[in-house]
């Protein structure tokens, strides 16, 4: 099983990653724990499986486990959303780097991970439904050579075209 190992240096060499040096270098940010979490073969396979078998963003395959990591959960639940946004965005960049190194490319679409709860002065911004408590959406990817399965949307259009064809030939 292919494992993509990303170091702090690798992350900071990336064109987007370098814009998050504040996250990488801030001692209060759990970036080291995030790196360790994502540099795991089983988790990376689950990220691919989320796209291939579940038609979901790669982050959907690991987000629940990520959010149970003590350092990540403490940081996201204890700090205002504007401050945690930088970490959440850096995680998105890290996912992109891993997916690209595993042969995937961005689709330019986002997939839903949660439904944002009403904002409150008394609670950090969080979700009230979906897979994730802290992430609202995440980038979708496709395999560079070709996806093994067509989406339900594509299959539905093909089915409707076939039925329309059959109906017009019966007349």
Folded structure, characterized:
This protein is an alpha+beta fold and 171 residues long. It has one domain (8-145). The N and C termini lie far apart (54 Å). The chain contains 8 helices and 4 strands. 51% of the residues lie in helices and 13% in strands. A two-stranded antiparallel ribbon has the order 1-4. A two-stranded antiparallel sheet has the order 2-3. The chain is globular and about 70 Å long. Helix 3 (31-38) runs parallel beside helix 7 (81-101).
Question: What attributes does this structure have?
Answer:
single chain; 171 residues; two-stranded antiparallel sheet; globular
**If you average the pLDDT, what whole number results?**
90
Number of domains: 1
Largest β sheet strand count, sense and barrel closure: 2 strands, antiparallel
Order of adjacent strands in the largest pleated sheet: 1-4
Order of helices and strands: HHHHHHHEEEEH
Determine the structural class based on helices, strands and strand pairing: alpha+beta
Summarize the structure.
The protein has 171 residues and is an alpha+beta fold. The chain is 51% helix and 13% strand.
List the SSEs and their pairings.
Blueprint: H1 8-13, H2 21-25, H3 31-38, H4 41-54, H5 63-68, H6 70-78, H7 81-101, E1 104-112, E2 114-116, E3 127-130, E4 137-143, H8 152-170
Antiparallel strand pairs: 1-4, 2-3
Helix pairs in contact: 3-7
